[in-house]
Automatic annotation (TrEMBL):
Protein's UniProt name: Calcium/sodium antiporter
GO MF entries: calcium channel activity; calcium, potassium:sodium antiporter activity
Species of origin: Candidatus Sedimenticola endophacoides
Composition skew (Low complexity), residue ranges: 326-340
Membrane topology qualifier: Multi-pass membrane protein
Chief location: membrane
Region (Disordered): 323-370
Gene3D superfamilies, per database record: NCX, central ion-binding region
Matches recorded under Pfam families: Na_Ca_ex
Length: 370
């Protein structure tokens, strides 16, 4: 147990550190190749923040734990909206000023709808995984199109430009990228190992572990990035990181178990987890889109989102709490009434003879004497 807990803690620490290096290196490579800050932010940074979820889910699927992979995908989306944006809005109310960001809201809703339709049959198969990857390609095309046609005065352009390293040489950027990728692979392996052992020890399903411990841990990079961006006044990046990450989580992360370990999944995914995720996505759309005005997530709404996350985690805990073990019924040979002597009605522990009497002491086997 202690070794499993240590593996989870070390896995999360290396995962966060590796993800940061991976994103920084990839962004610097793209910057050296002449890619605009907007496109880097919408594609590479968005993918990089979901890299922990992608690798953890892929590793879980390879180790025949698709429930953990599915839980990681949906749980990360729930944590991104309810916990990350909730806590960030409590620290600093988030204003949506970017027209580019407003165009991503309908895309996320469409991705959620497609994912729901694919899961309605209770299975996640290879065909579903391929459709999700095709949706990922279409999403990337749409994001690139939006980025190229965004106004130069869009706030996200300057916010991303301030965050992307400008003076890193190509060699250093490539080395940092490979280092981050290696750490992501290694940390995801030990994290999945520890999480599966914890699930086994506490008697809960891989799905619940994915929805709770693993989802929260893999969302820590988004939490750090969003809070840091909000404190710098880069509100659009704080929200944009979540929107981009959630689309990648559904299209890329959820495709992993479908392609690697296809099969049926727990019914709670459709009856509990998908409705919660879609409801939070709709709430984010209503709060952030700003119908007829500027979108904003204020402190009160941030508190509501945070409470929703805590309530959901409590719901998971009550549903997955191990049941007290049922006492097994004694075998018939042991539950049969003991021999009763005809004299006083008391029960005798002495072996009985074939005619119902007790075996004489002289004829007893010493090993059966009590």
């Amino acid at each position: 147990m202690l070794l499993s807990i240590a593996a989870i803690i070390a896995g999360f620490a290396l995962l966060i550190w590796g993800a940061e290096r991976f994103v920084t290196g990839a962004a610097a490579i793209a910057r050296n190749l002449g890619v605009t800050p907007m496109l880097i932010g919408l594609t590479i940074v968005g993918f990089g923040t979901s890299a922990p979820e992608i690798l953890v889910s892929g590793m879980a699927a390879f180790q025949s734990n698709p429930g953990l992979a599915i839980g990681n995908s949906l749980g990360s989306n729930i944590a991104n909206i309810a916990l990350i944006l909730g806590l960030t809005a409590l620290i600093a109310p988030l204003k949506v000023r970017s027209e580019t960001l407003r165009r991503e809201y309908p895309m996320l809703l469409m991705v959620c709808l497609v994912t729901l339709l694919l899961l309605l049959d209770g299975e996640l198969g290879v065909g579903d995984g391929l459709i999700l990857l095709a949706g990922l390609a279409l999403m990337l095309y749409g994001v690139i199109y939006i980025g190229r046609h965004s106004r130069a005065s869009d706030p996200m352009e300057s916010e991303y430009a301030a965050e992307i390293p400008q003076d890193m040489a190509m060699g250093g950027a490539l080395l940092l990228f490979l280092l981050g990728l290696g750490l992501l692979l290694f940390s995801s392996k030990i994290l999945v190992w520890g999480a599966v052992n914890i699930a086994t020890a506490f008697g809960v399903s891989d799905l619940v572990i994915g929805l709770t411990i693993v989802a929260l841990g893999t969302s820590l990079p988004e939490l750090a990035a969003s809070i840091t961006s909000a404190l710098k006044g880069e509100h659009d990046i704080a929200i944009g990181n979540v929107l981009g990450s959630n689309m990648y989580n559904l299209l890329a992360v959820l495709a992993m178990p479908g392609l690697i370990a296809p099969g049926e999944f727990a019914p709670e995914v459709l009856s509990r987890d998908m409705p919660v995720m879609i409801a939070l996505t709709l709430a984010l759309f209503v709060m952030g889109y700003g119908f007829g005005g500027q979108g904003m997530i204020n402190r009160f709404e941030g508190a509501i989102l945070t409470l929703c996350f805590l309530g959901y985690q409590g719901w998971l805990f009550t549903q997955s709490a191990p049941q007290p073990p049922q006492h097994a019924q004694a075998p018939a040979a042991l539950s049969a009434p003991a021999h009763t002597t005809p004299r006083d009605g008391t029960q005798s522990l002495l072996p009985a003879t074939s005619d119902g009497g007790e075996t004489p002491a002289a004829n007893r086997n010493p090993s059966t004497t009590i």
